[in-house]
Write a structure and sequence with these properties.
By secondary structure, the protein is of the alpha/beta class. It is built from eight helices and twelve strands. The longest helix is centred in the middle third of the chain and has 16 residues, at 109-124. The radius of gyration is 19 Å and the shape is globular. The termini are far apart. The structure holds calcium ion. Calcium ion is lined by residues 13-14, 56, 58-59.
Length: 236
């Protein structure tokens, strides 16, 4: 076999984790390059796409979800999220944005290698692209793969990763009361932590919902929030 070694880029701000991942992959014959910030990784991937990028979600300069989305739009490579955040909303959003797989730290080296090999194998086979989903609710449409929220009049905006995570959580569970912990994806959320309320309020503004007497995202006192709208998912 004379095939060049496949290069894997590792985006990880923790040098110890990066070294462990690199050592594991190199033991199994991959070439690796380590990037500490999203900016450096995206610049390198734009010049020459690696076979696959291992993306950490907690980064100093960007939300890892933004990196996943941008890689999907700019580089033809596999994407594996490797994160300490074992949170369903992150897993769903990550895969929705086009990540090929999601592995939680601490990882078992052989499992990581098996998942990476499986992504590379899948990517080497020509297959029809994964169907993209589009959500419609009231006069809105939302594309979870591009994070584009469209209004009835045609105006579109791209949501930030945190807002996108929240909106997707509501759209996946319409007309169901979701606790602040469920929405934050954090089971030991402090009752004093208002970050989720701030995010809900920001999302209401995006959706032109009245923040004083909201109609679309209602507050259920002592329980959480509920999206009071029917949601239709269709293939984009
Ligand atoms: Ca990190």
């Amino acid at each position: 076999m004379s095939a060049a070694r496949e290069e894997i880029h590792i985006l990880e701000d923790d040098p110890l984790v990066a070294a462990t991942v690199a050592r594991t992959l190199e033991e199994y014959g991959f070439a690796t390059r380590w990037f500490r910030t999203a900016g450096e990784l995206l610049a390198a991937a734009a010049r020459q796409a690696p076979a696959l990028v291992v993306v950490d979600l907690g980064l100093p300069d960007r939300d890892g979800m933004d990196v996943v989305r941008e890689l999907r739009q700019t580089a033809d490579c596999g994407v594996l999220i490797l994160t300490g955040r074992d949170v369903l909303s992150d897993r769903v959003l990550g895969l929705e944005l086009g990540a090929d797989d999601y592995v939680v730290k601490p990882f078992e080296p052989r499992e990581l290698v098996a998942r990476i090999r499986s992504i590379l194998r899948r990517r080497s086979q020509p297959v029809a692209g994964k169907a993209r989903r589009l959500a419609r609710f009231e006069a809105w449409r939302y594309d979870p793969a591009s994070l584009v929220l469209g209004a009835a009049g045609g105006a579109e905006e791209i949501l930030g990763a945190a807002e996108a995570r929240l909106l997707l959580c509501f759209l996946e569970h319409p007309n169901r009361v979701l606790s602040r912990e469920q929405l934050a994806g954090n089971s030991d959320l402090s009752p004093l932590d208002r970050s989720i309320d701030v995010r809900v309020s920001r999302l209401r503004k995006r959706l032109n919902d009245d923040t004083q007497s909201p109609r679309l995202i209602k507050t259920v006192y002592g329980a959480g929030y509920v999206l009071t709208a029917g949601v239709q998912w269709e293939i984009a």
